[in-house]
């Protein structure tokens, strides 16, 4: 009788990473990103392999991941730092792919060809339309306010050859004015509109030589169809949109506008003079401590001056330049103590450099001998007119001097006296122009905010100033795109795929900012904190900080004679606190159905 031995089981455990990804996927599914994409992009019809399998009576081949699933995978990859499309398969092999997307999805299906086709499909479906649908879900699911929007542009640089046929659609990487000061690189112009919490509402990728004003107007055309009530929305932007066409388009749609008036405007100096002439009308806008203990307090004060603006109202038929009209705006002249100190320091350095620069020509002029006083005076006048310096006065005087002519070589003759002549020299002194410096100091730190709002008790000047101060949320988004987002370099050669990839980057930024917003709001409501950098408790963690706290969470699967057993490794009480704060199920990491289907 032979003894039956149990089957030999390979007990090697399988370790797959989860980390922050279940939380990120849950938020993406609250926004219905993959669902909206797959609704707009039907699945591809069965290929010849399906027909061959059916003819041979074999099971059909496993369908490739949908475009929505590919988009989710690429968004998660961008969130973690982005690898090239050809490396996506290797990146996914380290993840619990079946837990995130289901057992029918395998890493080997995410080839670069499949992902490239997904990008083509996204572009064909219309990335702007898809993103507008995502924004609708954002407003509905998370009660996001759109009463204040901020706009800005940046340049995204790239490497290599990007010459493509003109017939191919999509933005072109071409030389242009580089905001990164890299004129040697090709670039695109990326425009983004965010709401006051930094959540992107609209983004566009344009040719690298597109003017900022054109990107701005393109955003206005797209936004007017997405904002339910433009009259309650204030559009905040930098001086690039302070022109008759952009402001006219904004007001024609119904948006309110707050923008920075360029110093090149003819009315800028006049408005500052009007504000300085009425010191009683100035009010305090904000007061904050210095950045360090040694820095003085920072103070902002403002004075509102009515200012009519000439706007170009758009032609309703779209085939003309439109008509000019005047509308009442308010110019808020703002004085910043910090900016005044910066300007005063810069002006003092300019005067020091000017004094140093004048030393050599002044010495050269002083060494020149003139035959008569009139010639010296004329030379001094020319010198003063040729070297004007703001804040300095060049004073010149002419003095006679007796000069001994050089004598001939050899021993002097008996009784020979030296020959002398009278010449005239110019002495130039550089003095401070106290009156000009005081007048300049009074204007240092001044800038003007132009707004269509009527300033009153319900809408004070402090609110206009606060709105413009929020413009930094756009710049912070650009820093993320160029830092952890790693937009550049981009090696895709097809403009359509580059445009689709920029859409995925915008969705990733939305996801990043949304998780951050929800976490901070939850901690503010409950008064709780979580460990921040260097383990310091904080109520304002970034999404990057949350991702660091949620690393090294794995699904460990160990084969046994009775079947595989899966357990969660690396789970800490802090992780449960984060799930609770984000209003996610406590067993999210243990229930694959909740990850795939959302809470």
The gist of it:
This protein has 599 residues and is α+β, with helices and mostly antiparallel strands. It has 20 helices and 16 strands. The protein has helices spanning 21-30, 33-40, 48-55, 67-80, 88-93, 97-101, 112-125, 127-142, 212-223, 244-253, 268-276, 337-366, 373-386, 434-443, 461-469, 472-482, 495-526, 543-549, 573-581, 592-597; strands at 14-17, 148-158, 186-195, 200-207, 234-237, 256-260, 283-288, 298-313, 323-336, 392-404, 420-432, 446-451, 530-531, 537-538, 554-558, 565-569.
Report the β-strand fraction as a percent range.
15-25%
Assign the CATH class of one domain: Alpha Beta
What is the percent of helical residues?
A: 40-55%
- End-to-end CA span: 57 Å
- What multimeric state do the chains show? single chain
Structural class by secondary-structure content: alpha+beta
User: How many strand units?
Assistant: 16
Most strands sheet:
9 strands, mixed
> Remind me, CATH topology of one domain?
Transposase Inhibitor Protein From Tn5, Chain A, domain 1
Q: CATH-wise, what's the superfamily of one domain? A: Transposase Inhibitor Protein From Tn5, Chain A, domain 1
Which spans have pLDDT < 50 for at least 5 consecutive residues? Answer: 484-489
Radius of gyration, Cα only, in angstroms? 34 Å
**Physical arrangement of strands within the biggest beta sheet:** 4-3-2-5-6-12-9-8-7
User: How many DSSP H or I helices?
Assistant: 20
Architecture (CATH level 2) name of one domain: Alpha-Beta Complex
Shape: elongated
Global mean pLDDT: 85
């Amino acid at each position: 009788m032979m003894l039956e031995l149990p089957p030999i089981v390979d007990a090697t455990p399988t370790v797959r990473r989860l980390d922050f990804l279940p939380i990120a996927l849950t938020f993406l599914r609250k926004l219905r990103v993959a669902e909206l994409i797959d609704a707009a992009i039907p699945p591809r019809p069965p290929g010849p392999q399906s027909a061959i399998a059916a003819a041979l009576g074999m099971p059909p081949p496993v369908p490739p991941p949908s475009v929505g699933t590919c988009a989710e995978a690429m968004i998660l990859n961008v969130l973690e730092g982005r690898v090239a499309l050809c490396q996506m398969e290797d990146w996914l092999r380290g993840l619990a792919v079946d837990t995130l997307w289901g057992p029918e999805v395998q890493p080997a299906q995410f080839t670069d060809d499949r992902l490239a086709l997904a990008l083509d499909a996204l572009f064909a479906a219309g990335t702007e339309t898809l993103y507008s649908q995502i924004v609708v879900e954002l407003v509905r699911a998370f009660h996001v306010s759109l009463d204040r929007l901020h706009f800005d542009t940046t340049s995204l640089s790239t490497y290599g050859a990007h010459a493509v046929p003109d017939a191919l659609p999509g933005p072109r990487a071409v030389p242009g004015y580089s905001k990164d000061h890299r004129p040697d690189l090709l670039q695109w112009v990326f425009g983004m509109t965010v709401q006051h919490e930094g959540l992107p509402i609209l983004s566009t990728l344009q040719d690298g030589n597109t003017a900022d004003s054109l990107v701005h107007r393109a955003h206005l055309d797209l936004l007017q169809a997405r904002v339910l009530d433009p009259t309650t929305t204030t559009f905040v932007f930098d001086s690039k949109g302070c022109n008759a066409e952009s402001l006219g388009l904004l007001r024609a749609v119904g948006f309110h506008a707050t923008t920075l008036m360029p110093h090149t405007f003819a009315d800028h100096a006049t408005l500052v003079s009007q504000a300085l002439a009425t010191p009683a009308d100035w009010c305090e806008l904000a007061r904050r401590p210095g950045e360090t203990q040694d820095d003085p307090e920072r103070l902002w004060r403002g004075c509102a001056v009515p200012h009519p603006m000439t706007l170009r109202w758009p032609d309703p038929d779209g085939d003309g330049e439109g008509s000019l009209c005047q509308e009442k705006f308010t110019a808020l002249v703002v004085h910043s103590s910090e900016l005044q100190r910066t300007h005063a320091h810069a002006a003092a350095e300019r005067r020091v450099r000017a004094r140093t620069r004048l030393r050599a020509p002044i010495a050269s002029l002083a060494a020149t001998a003139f035959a008569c006083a009139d010639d010296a005076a004329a030379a001094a006048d020319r010198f003063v007119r040729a070297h004007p310096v703001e804040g300095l006065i060049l004073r010149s005087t002419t003095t006679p001097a007796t000069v001994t002519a050089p004598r001939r070589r050899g021993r002097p003759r008996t009784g020979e006296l030296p020959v002398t002549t009278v010449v005239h020299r110019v002495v130039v002194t550089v003095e401070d122009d106290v009156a000009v410096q005081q007048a300049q100091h009074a204007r240092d730190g001044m800038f003007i905010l132009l707004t269509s709002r009527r300033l009153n008790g319900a809408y004070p000047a402090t609110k206009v100033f606060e709105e413009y101060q929020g413009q930094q949320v756009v710049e912070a988004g650009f820093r993320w795109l160029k830092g952890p987002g790693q937009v550049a370099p981009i090696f895709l050669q097809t403009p359509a795929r580059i445009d689709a990839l920029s859409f995925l980057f915008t969705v990733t930024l939305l996801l990043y900012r949304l998780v951050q917003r929800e976490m901070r709001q939850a901690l503010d409501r409950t008064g709780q904190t979580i460990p921040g950098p260097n383990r310091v408790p904080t109520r304002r963690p970034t999404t990057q900080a949350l991702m660091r706290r949620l690393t090294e969470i794995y699904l460990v699967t160990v084969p046994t004679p009775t079947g595989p057993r899966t357990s969660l490794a690396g789970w800490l009480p802090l992780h449960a606190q984060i799930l609770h704060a984000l209003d996610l199920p406590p067993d999210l990491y243990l229930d694959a159905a909740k990850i795939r289907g959302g809470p």
